[in-house]
Amino acid sequence: MSGGYEDDIDELDYILYTGHGGQDVPGGKQIKDQEFVEGNLALKLSFENKLPVRVTRGFQISNGPQTGYRYDGIYYINHIERVIGKSGYFVCRFHLQSEKSIENLEKILSGKLKSNYRRTTRTKISVSKVDRNPMLPDKIKELYGFRCQVCNCRLEKPGGAIAVCAHIRALGRPHDGPDDITNIICLCPNHHAQFDAYSFYIDADTLEIKGLAGFEGKRLNLSKKHKINGEFFEYHKQLYERAKHL
What we know:
alpha+beta, two-stranded antiparallel ribbon, 5 helices
């Protein structure tokens, strides 16, 4: 990272990174839309395949070193989007989260940050992996007998069955969804992958499945013992709509 895009946000452990392209000159004015090509496509593939991204910061940015460049470790892309930027053109944006906490990063980079470095003031509402309740997925899977709430299939394995729980509004930044039973559904691996990729959505009012071939208009199987917050389905639908621009 070396600056140059007005939409960037850098909080050390969290980065909202703008893809490249569309400027009149490097670091200049945005004059046309960005597309998921070249380097932007590579980052998109890293997101889709859950591959790590190595981040290096340059002296040009506030969280960079005093001089030269500094390697800051492994980050993972939690979300990608193509939205209208500050200049009115579509930009590709990538939400990156460090594998380390802000406290660990500051400790590791002690002496390598600029003298005027200050941690960004923010409301701490994000959820990390260690905050997850490991009992919730088992509770949901058992409630549905390890059957997918979309297709009703049960995938057998020696000694049990395979099912995956999905958070409707994802945990962590930028989504900040809660690790709560009202935000979790039970799916088969295929439909879990498609749900996470915004290939289909669930209508919050009717619980009808939308956008999924073979299941269009069918109703999500929902137990009377399982209360879901419809706001999370609405949020997921918004991201489904945005994904059309990717």
